Amino acid sequence: MSAPILTGICSFGYSTKVFHGPLLAVNPNFKFKAVVERHKEESKEKYPDLTIYKSVDELVNDESIELIIVNTPNQTHYEFAKKALLANKHVIIDKPFAATVEECEELIQLAKE
User: Fold this and answer.
1) Cα of 78 vs its chain's centroid, Å
2) Which DSSP letter does residue 18 get?
3) pLDDT tens-digit series, residues 5-44
4) Vertex 26, ends 21 and 27: CA angle to 5°?
5) How far apart are the first and last CA of the chain?
6) Using CB atoms within 10 A of its CB, is residue 4 exposed (0-12), middle (13-18) or buried (19+)?
7) pTM surpassing 0.85?
8) Which of 7, 41, 59, 89 is close enough to 84 for a disulfide, judged by CB 3.0 to 4.6 Å?
9) Rounded to an integer, what distance in angstroms lies between the CA atom of residue 95 and that of residue 37?
10) 2 near 28, Cβ under 8 Å?
């Protein structure tokens, strides 16, 4: 078996608490390594080994992170996904993927590159 994919999540909101976090915690193909919590550290209660970053930029700049899950408010999906792709990360984006067709096409092109 290959090493687990080191994964970071852009926010510790509902989708992380209910969907992403529990899946990453039990799937041996992933290691839930980091999360962005700008004001609190609620994630430590359930995931004490997580690295907590105060900004998405800090998460994106973590060279060990291979996959970033963008689960922030819809209007930030494009910006954060683009940052992650430009940092050579794999990206999962909650829906909606982006606000315009042009943004979607740009992110797809970045991912291909």
Assistant:
1) 13
2) I
3) 999 999 999 999 999 999 999 999 999 999 999 999 999 9
4) 100
5) 27
6) middle
7) yes
8) 89
9) 21
10) no
